[in-house]
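Reading is simple: each integer encodes one residue's backbone shape. The lines below illustrate:
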Amino acid sequence: MNRFLLRVPLMCCALAVGSGCVTSTVDEMTFNEPAEGIGDASVVILGRRHASDYETEPDFIECVGDHIASRDKSINVIGELEFINALYPWFEPRTAPLRPEDIDRLLLQEPVAEKMAELKTEYMIWIDGSTVRTDSAGSMTCGIGPGGAGCFGFGTWGNDANYEATIWDFTDKAEVGRINTSASGQSYMPAVVVPIPIIAPVQGTACDGIGDQLLEFLSSEF
């Protein structure tokens, strides 16, 4: 089954329950999906860390893996750190494969081939991107007076998250899909004596968006 350029816009605004506003968009292009899930094979999710100005956050990679594993317990998700340690140094940033064709080069190394076979790795998912803080405004002052300590003011700031997941079929040594997600949100901190942060869950929204689309690719239940 093939799916191309699926755009899913999402919006959330829940200030009343302590969350800031978040808007999110997911774009998907996938093909050669497993017809009945991935069976007893495994999937590993890795973060790209080649850029000089940012790195894909390890906690985001863990979030996506946990999202998939919790929604479909039949999918064996290998932890990023476990995988990198098991195949050291072949998946360090300076040596990690950049293209599916590079898998052939890796398999020439007997320890790599043996470990990959032992782990039953069927799909390798590379996630590239980051969450960054954007604009901020407002001011806040805090002090101690005869009546006690307190803060007064109002602050706001934005966050943007942009991530791309590239799905490699390890057996066929080919790219079989890409999923892009972007999310932006505005957080607030009003303070009348006590600061009350109202945080926009930008990174969490991006994690859920990309995790849901990966589930549709990997799972037989979605």
